């Protein structure tokens, strides 16, 4: 990383950058407006749901843990009875229970005991009839997510057991790999969203090829996903959509198919993601809020999201925002996360510990992404990549990305520290790094159309910037 004096000369890659030195006045301003002061209040408003002390074992409803008996009807009956009786815990005992879609009802905790496995069918017909969902952040009717809830209160998936998506045994990979049939449906849905086609007319499912999410809650309140291990999802893994008061804690995600993010809070607020391990073939935590015109139509931001004490070993970003962020994103906090830990190495090294993706087709805003106390290393590319021209998608929507901060972070090994891509029409504003140390950094930074870049007590390869 070059010094402040050389920032505007680094290989000719910098354009229209404004550097603000770390003066005493600047320090006083930063101290008086410390965004981390908001976190205790956010966390006080996030309360995991509590459930009556009643239990229904799925085997009492006909489920058999032999790995071959279809237990879909048993799960449905147990959940319905639990809900009818005022709520409680539906228990999956040790064994391997094969099922299709599981739809949760209010006041139901689905508890997978240690030694218990919910193995999801590899037959797409097991996820019909279609349900109202968001697919890559555009609303439509599609195959049901493997675990799904719509408009419910107090829902949970807990336990030391396993959710096995069996995605590599199913057809899901063939749908997108080698220019598979998903591409045509993907383009059709995006066009429907851009053209304002009524949602009830956006019907996919049977005869189509849009892979369902693994666990999705739509328009729900008071959600808990805790302790489970989730293997081989067909697409995004845990995806709260238009939901509020969400706790995701202590889960382990292992995914190898393309586009299998770990946790995607989408147009959701008051979300706490803690003590999780993400070994993914895409982003680890990816905050979203809708895609393009359809996301702006719904117009609900993601905000007040706190990520703590997680292990990131995903193929792309650690803490990520976008690219589907057309409803806006504000107040994302991430702290004490470990990048590419030797104790949890994952299948792929993280390319970008902090990765923000936006463009003029998405429009909207990202305001306030705050990171501190990250450790680890072996970062494949840049520590922070803010790309306001993501995928080179053209558009004319106003776009604002501002207030990105990293503090007290120590990482060993990276291609570079910063790759900041603002736009000539819409500058990136206020990127701050403070009290950070980066070692074994290979290359120079790239900074374009960025105003208010501030560095204070930042050391790169032993040299203060």
UniProtKB/TrEMBL annotation:
Gene3D superfamilies: Single-stranded right-handed beta-helix, Pectin lyase-like. Keywords: Glycosidase, Hydrolase. It comes from the Bacteria. Residues 58-99 form the Rhamnogalacturonase A/B/Epimerase-like pectate lyase domain. GO terms for molecular function: polygalacturonase activity. Transmembrane segments: none annotated. GO terms for biological process: carbohydrate metabolic process. Belongs to the glycosyl hydrolase 28 family. This is Polygalacturonase. It comes from Nonomuraea jiangxiensis.
């Amino acid at each position: 990383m070059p010094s402040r004096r050389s920032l505007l000369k680094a290989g000719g890659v910098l354009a229209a950058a404004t550097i603000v030195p770390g003066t005493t006045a600047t320090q006083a301003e930063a101290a008086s407006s410390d965004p981390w002061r908001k976190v205790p209040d956010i966390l006080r408003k996030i309360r995991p749901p509590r459930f009556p002390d009643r239990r229904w074992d799925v085997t009492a409803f006909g489920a058999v843990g032999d790995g071959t008996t279809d237990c879909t009807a048993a799960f449905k009956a147990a959940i319905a009875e639990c809900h009818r009786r005022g709520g409680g815990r539906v228990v999956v005992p040790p064994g391997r229970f094969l099922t299709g879609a599981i739809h949760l009802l209010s006041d139901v905790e689905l508890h997978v005991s240690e030694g218990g496995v919910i193995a999801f069918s590899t037959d797409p017909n097991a996820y019909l009839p279609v349900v109202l969902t968001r697919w890559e952040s555009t609303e439509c009717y599609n195959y049901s997510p493997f675990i799904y809830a719509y408009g419910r209160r107090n829902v949970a998936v807990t336990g030391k057991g396993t959710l096995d998506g069996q995605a590599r045994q199913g057809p899901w990979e063939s749908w997108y790999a080698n220019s598979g049939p998903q591409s045509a449906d993907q383009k059709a849905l995006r066009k429907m969203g851009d053209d304002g086609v009524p949602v009830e007319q956006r019907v996919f499912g049977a005869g189509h090829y849009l892979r369902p999410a693994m666990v999705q809650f739509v328009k729900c309140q008071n959600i808990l996903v805790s302790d489970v291990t989730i293997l081989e999802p067909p697409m995004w893994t845990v995806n709260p959509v238009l939901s509020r008061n969400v706790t995701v804690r202590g889960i382990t995600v292992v995914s190898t198919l393309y586009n299998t993010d770990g946790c995607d809070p989408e147009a959701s607020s008051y979300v706490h993601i803690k003590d999780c391990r993400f070994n993914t073939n895409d982003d680890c935590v990816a905050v979203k809020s809708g895609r393009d015109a359809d996301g702006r139509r719904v117009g609900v931001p993601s905000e007040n999201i706190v990520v703590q004490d997680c292990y990131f070993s995903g193929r792309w970003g650690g803490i990520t925002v976008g690219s589907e962020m057309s409803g806006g994103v504000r107040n994302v906090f991430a702290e004490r996360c470990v990048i590419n830990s030797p104790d949890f190495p994952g299948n792929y090294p993280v390319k970008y510990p902090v990765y923000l993706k936006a463009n003029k087709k998405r429009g909207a805003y990202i305001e306030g992404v705050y990171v501190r106390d990250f450790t680890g290393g072996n970062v494949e590319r840049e520590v922070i990549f803010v790309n306001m021209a993501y995928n080179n998608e053209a558009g004319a929507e106003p776009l604002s990305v501002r207030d990105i901060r990293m503090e007290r972070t120590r990482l060993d090994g990276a291609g570079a520290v910063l790759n900041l891509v603002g736009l000539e029409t819409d500058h990136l504003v206020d990127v701050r790094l403070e009290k950070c140390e980066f070692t074994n950094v290979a290359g120079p930074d790239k900074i374009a159309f960025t105003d208010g870049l501030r560095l204070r007590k930042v050391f790169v390869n032993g040299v203060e910037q």
